[in-house]
Amino acid sequence: MRPAVQLAQEVGARLGERALLQRQVQNGEGGGVMLLFVQIIIGSVWIFHGLYSKLLRGIPRHRAIVARVLGERHADLATKAIGVGEIVLGLWVFSGWQRVPCAAVQTLALVSMNVLEIALAADLLISAAGMVALNAGFITMIWYWATSARR
Fold first, then answer.
1. What would the pLDDT profile of 46-63 be if each residue is shown by its tens digit?
2. DSSP H or E segment with residue 26
3. What pTM was estimated for this model as a whole?
């Protein structure tokens, strides 16, 4: 299939999916309200941590963890880059585009960050077990959102 035709079909399918979700939200049926609520939570968590915690340095511990993992020399730039990446993930979630690949990227990011933080900066964490439990719940929410929209 030609790329332009494939793209047009994908955009058409996505618009149809969005219209169905909007009807469900308006009518309070099909879990549309719940999916929209979950989508807002997921996107907001990424944007909060990217913007407030990293770019605005609202939670200095985040930069300290990056410094421990990547070295003090790279901590400022890396923390900003991670913050921008988290904001992009939040915007991707808000767009609703390609939910399953979006969920896969979020899962990879969270698992990678958790492994690095526990292995190299455990003493800087409030609670390693709490972080893992919280992120396991968050990943569950992400995959619920990613897979429920297709039902």
1. 999 999 999 999 999 999
2. helix 3-27
3. 0.78
